[in-house]
Amino acid sequence: MGKTKDRGPSFFEILKAQASQLVTAVDLLTTLFNAPEEERYLLRDRLHEVEHEADNLNHSIIRKLNQSFITPFDREDLQALASLLDDCMDLLDEAGDLLVLYNLHDIPEPVFSLLQAQMQVLNQCAFLTAENMPNLKRPQDMREYWVEINRLENDGDKAYRRTLKHLFDTGIDPITVIKLKDVVEVLEKCTDKFEDLGNAIESIAVKES
C-alpha cells in the first residue's frame, strides 16, 4: 500500500499526548505506593489502562510514519521519540505491577522515604516532559529541558544508590529485599529512559540547527 495524504493529528500532537499520559501514570503510581492494600488492585488496573492508551498512541506514530510523504524530522528520530516515551510508560506500569504482585506494603523506613525520592524525580521528569513537548516544533529552544532532565537523572542515580544501600543495611528479610530491589531497579531504568529522551531531543536540535 502506498503512502497517502497526511490526515489526523500531527506528529507533535501525538507525542504531546504521549507525554501527558506519563504524568497520569506517575500520579497513579505515586498514589499506589501510598494506598492501602485493598485499593491497590484498582489503581494497578487503571495504570494498565493508561499504559494501553499510550501503546495506542505509539502505534499511531508508526502508522502515521508509514502513511506520510513528508515528516518534520527524520523518521528514525520521530520513531525513537515515540519509542522512548513508550518505554517510560512501560516501566512505570511494571513498577506498579510489581508492587501489587509482590504484595509490598508497610515498607519500612528509611527505604520507603528513599523510594519516594525516586518517585519524586520521576514525577518531575514526567511533568517537565509534558510541559516542554509542545515546544518540540523548535527543539533548539528546549535546551533548558534536556539540561534539567540530565540533572534529575543524576539525582535519581543518587537516590537509587542510597536505596540499595539501605535495603541491605536495615535487616529486612532477604525475600522482601529481593522484591524491593526489583522495584527500585525498574524506577532507576525509567529515570534513565527519561534521560535518553532528553538526549534524543538534544540530538534533533543539533540536526535542525
TrEMBL record:
Pfam families: PhoU_div. InterPro entries: PhoU-like_sf, Put_Phosphate_transp_reg, UPF0111_domain. PANTHER family: UPF0111 PROTEIN YKAA. Belongs to the UPF0111 family. This is DUF47 family protein. It comes from Scrofimicrobium appendicitidis.
